[in-house]
Amino acid sequence: MEFVSDSNRKMEILTKPYIILNAAMTADGKIDTITRRGAKISSEADWSRVDELRAAVDAVMVGGKTLLNEDPRLTVKSPELRRKRLEAGKSENPLKVGIVTDARISAKARFLNDGPAEVVIFTTSQASSETLHLLKETGVRVVLAGDELVDLPQAMHQLKTFGVDRLLLEGGGTLNASMFAEELIDEVQVYLAPVIFAGADAPTLADGAGFGVREAVPLALENIKILPNGGVLLTYLAKYKGE
Q1: What is the mean pLDDT of residues 77-83?
Q2: 20 to 30 Å CA-CA from 172: which of 22, 30, 81, 122?
Q3: Helical residues (DSSP H) of 91-235, grouped into ranges
């Protein structure tokens, strides 16, 4: 797949993976409580779906706040699904990807150590040389991809060159919004839980500065599935204005 980026006022055509945004959110659109500690929203049935989704992709990606605040494992939980990946000639778990402006990650983080899985961190020149050295010492592939913010189109292109054809984006809201702004997301899968978190400062599916009506991303509904606990799985395709 190709996309057009106008980063740095240059028009480039770059290849990228097929990118699926997956999220669980409450009926009032929250992906966490105001404490931002990774509150459980998905049902058991939805967790099984997410595990299958992880097992079917080449990489799973999160943003800096999710990585640093929640320290996710991003691994495939099912032994059977891991076995099938190995039988297909793949790694036991998909590649883990972090988009972090300042990669202050503990060497003991679950994100780095739970696996086995390869890890790639895209960061900026704001990361200290000590941090970069520590990450490289733990076997992480570190890619400097910007000065103030990670250049997302370039990072996605880099992942494609690493052999990532299908990428699963698991948040958080700031990265999701930035990926939509760059027109990088192809598909959206949202589990809508029958619960209300409320809170003006609780994170939503897409945060950031927000879009005006003219810049809003249209979505085409592909499927609706009602799960046993009353939750609803919605699947959309992103339809950007220029397409």
Answers
A1: 98
A2: 81
A3: 110-113, 129-137, 152-161, 173-181
Residue 78 pLDDT: 98
pTM for this one?
0.92
Mean pLDDT of 187-213: 95
- CATH of residue 19: 3.40.430.10
Q: Is 9 helix (H, G, I), strand (E, B) or coil?
A: helix
The three-state secondary structure class of 29 is coil
Residue 243 located in a structural domain: no
Helix (H) or strand (E) holding 81: helix 79-87
Which residue in this structure is represented by tokens 């799973």?
60
SS percent in the chain: helix, strand, coil, step 5 = 30, 25, 45
Q: What is the pLDDT of residue 5?
A: 43
Distance separating alpha carbons of residues 191 and 198, to the nearest angstrom: 17
Q: 3 — phi, psi (to 5°)?
A: -145, 165
Phi/psi-derived region of residue 27, left when phi > 0, alpha when psi is between -120 and 50, beta in every other case: alpha
Closest by CA to 22, choosing from 141, 179, 142, is 179
Q: Token pair for residue 24?
A: 């669980």
Total domains in the fold of the chain: 1
Q: Is the pLDDT of residue 206 over 50?
A: yes
